[in-house]
Specification:
Layout lengths: L11 H4 L11 E2 L15 H12 L1 H4 E3 L6 H14 L4 E3 L4 E3 L4 E3 L5 E3 L10 H7 L6 H9 L3 E6 L7 E3 L8 H4 L4 H5 L6 H5 L1 H8 L5 E9 L25 E13 L5 E13 H4 L3 H12 L3 H6 L6 H13 L3
């Protein structure tokens, strides 16, 4: 799915509420609801991920020393094959992205089944060859699906493994191995999140599947928003009417790690679309206005909205007042 289109699985009504609160916001996934989104060859998500894995892979891919990610990866690959058999194949050893005509064997050997479908034809294979062999199967999954991935360990509460190419203004390499509480400690107005941490770990690493949504209004359209590559002085060149709506659908795939430890693969699907497109109705504009209006100064600063709050609210109010 193209990043500029609306993700039908992002629930605006569930995600954008007023007054705004930083909270887990989990809801159960209905049976059969997909958690992964296959990418077409040369799609925007794929092009940005290719660039990141080629130039900045040490920031996107990380594992805590001593952690065995094999059970989590195999569970993810099996889930992908069951959910999208036309896009992904997994026989327990070899992972294959069918739409990309590229596979990676258990030893990390990259197998290009036929010339690629975009560019020079070997972009995916060349990118994977540049990764350490142990990371190539995970790299292929990143390029085959829109989602990024992280492992949540239920026993320790830590994030011991991640493959995050498209972070939303946070540095994946700084979150590796940290407890969930630490990861959310910098988040403004995080009291509800921190109080829910232990219970949240038990829930997301339990037998059920869950999803949650997060969002922000952004001054740029890039999917890859690592803080090292986003200008620190935000909103210098983007007027509010040309702003972007950045959303994430996050889900949890439960599994058992080494020794039966409860774990989950955390999936993150980032979408960016023009703000005017995200506000499908006047009601959406009104709800977003009320959510932003209720944000504390700390939350506005954390989301880089402090300097444009009044202008954004005025524009949203005018949008909400437009006739249907």
């Amino acid at each position: 799915m193209d990043a500029m289109s609306t993700d039908p699985r992002f629930d605006f009504t569930a995600a954008v509420t007023a007054p705004f609160r930083m909270q887990p916001g989990l809801r159960r996934l209905p049976a059969g609801s997909p958690q992964l989104t296959p990418l077409g060859p040369g799609s925007r998500h794929q092009r940005e991920k290719l660039a990141v894995l080629t130039a900045f892979w040490p920031q996107a891919l990380g594992v805590q020393p001593g952690f065995d990610a094999t059970p989590a990866l195999h569970a993810l690959f099996a889930h992908a094959a069951a959910e999208h058999p036309a896009a992904w194949a997994w026989n327990g050893e070899c992972a294959e992205a069918l739409a990309l005509a590229t596979a990676v064997a258990a030893d990390g050997q990259v197998l290009q089944r036929q010339p690629g479908r975009f560019g020079l034809g070997d972009e995916v294979a060349r990118c994977l060859q540049g990764l350490p062999p142990a990371w190539r199967q995970a790299g292929l999954a990143c390029l085959a699906f829109a989602e990024d991935f992280a492992v949540v360990d239920g026993a320790s509460g830590c994030i011991p493994w991640l493959a995050v190419c498209l972070p939303s203004h946070w540095a994946p390499e700084e979150k590796l191995g940290r407890h969930f509480t630490e990861v959310h400690a910098p988040v403004a107005d995080n009291t509800l999140l921190l109080k829910a941490t232990e219970g949240l770990m038990r829930v997301v690493t339990g037998p059920e599947r869950w999803e949650r949504f997060v969002w922000n209004v952004s001054d740029h359209p890039r999917l890859h928003a690592h803080p090292a590559r986003v200008h620190p002085q935000r909103w210098q060149h983007t007027p509010v009417p040309q702003a972007w709506f950045r959303s994430e659908r996050q889900t949890f795939i439960p599994l058992r790690g080494a020794g039966g430890t409860p774990q989950a693969v955390f999936t993150i699907h980032v979408q960016v679309q023009p703000l005017v497109q995200a506000l499908a109705t006047a009601s959406h504009a009104h709800t977003l206005h009320e959510a932003v209006a209720s944000m504390s100064p700390a939350v506005l600063a954390y989301r880089s909205l402090g300097g444009v709050r009044d202008e954004l609210l005025a524009w949203l109010a005018a949008r909400a007042a437009q006739p249907a």
